[in-house]
Amino acid sequence: MEGPGRILISHDEITARVAELGEAIRRDYAGRAPVLVGVLKGAVIFAADLIRAIPLPISLDFMSVSSYGSSTRPSGVVRLSSDLSLSIEGRDVIIVEDIIDSGRTISYLRRNLATRHPRSLALCALLDKVARREVEVTVDYIGFVIPDEFVVGYGLDDDGLHRNLRHIAVLERGRGP
Ligand code: IMP
Ligand code: MG
């Protein structure tokens, strides 16, 4: 599909990397039955592909957070807007995020989920903008480290659009004033 900008990561590269992540998770969680927790809406496509790359008895759930401000200028304040439907007490939980930017969303989620006493809590992010980190986070599985550019596609949006691109593209219009 025609995209809005330059291709940063092709669909084939994503597919290959998702298979590798699935294999790493299968190895690390052998004999267990983890719960994947996808963060809506950005991680929905990644989570859907990733779960099919993990041949284990696995559950899938979603939660949704909102950060105030716009997608290109987040304010850093994070709030839970839709919760899990499963209990994660005693479970091996893997949070699946689309992208780690400042790290604020994921550190909020980690803290929130940790209070529910999972057996273990790990984080898998498709993209990591390491250069933008404001709070320290440990990411257990990373798809790709990317430069500080605003990207869309494969679930990631700009004001709700471009989630349906099969690749990751750089949106060439800056991050606003
Ligand atoms: P953080 O809380 O600053 O780490 O921001 C994480 C969230 O910001 C992600 O889950 C995305 O929703 C959004 N985000 C950050 N960078 C991008 C981007 O380049 N494209 C689209 N969304 C982004
Ligand atoms: Mg997100």
Q: What structural keywords apply?
A:
alpha/beta; 6-stranded mixed sheet; 3 helices; binds inosinic acid; binds magnesium ion
Can you characterise this structure?
The chain is α/β, with parallel strands linked by helices and 177 residues long. The chain has three helices and nine strands, in the order βαβαβββαββββ. The chain has helices at residues 11-28, 44-51, 104-114, and strands at residues 6-9, 35-40, 59-69, 74-82, 92-100, 120-128, 141-145, 151-152, 168-170. It has a six-stranded mixed beta sheet, with helices on both faces. Strands 1-9-8 form a three-stranded antiparallel beta sheet. Helix 2 links the parallel strand 2 and strand 3. Helix 1 packs across helix 2. 28% of the residues are buried. Bound molecules: inosinic acid and magnesium ion.
Summarize it.
This protein has helices spanning 11-28, 44-51, 104-114, and strands at residues 6-9, 35-40, 59-69, 74-82, 92-100, 120-128, 141-145, 151-152, 168-170. The chain has 177 residues and is of the alpha/beta class.
Computed CA radius of gyration, to the nearest angstrom: 16 Å
Largest sheet, spatial ordering of strands: 4-3-2-5-6-7
Strand content: 25-35%
Instruction: Catalogue the unreliable spans.
Output: none
The counted number of beta strands is: 9
Which structural category fits the helices and strands?
alpha/beta
- Main sheet record: 6 strands, mixed
Global outline: globular
Helix content: 10-25%
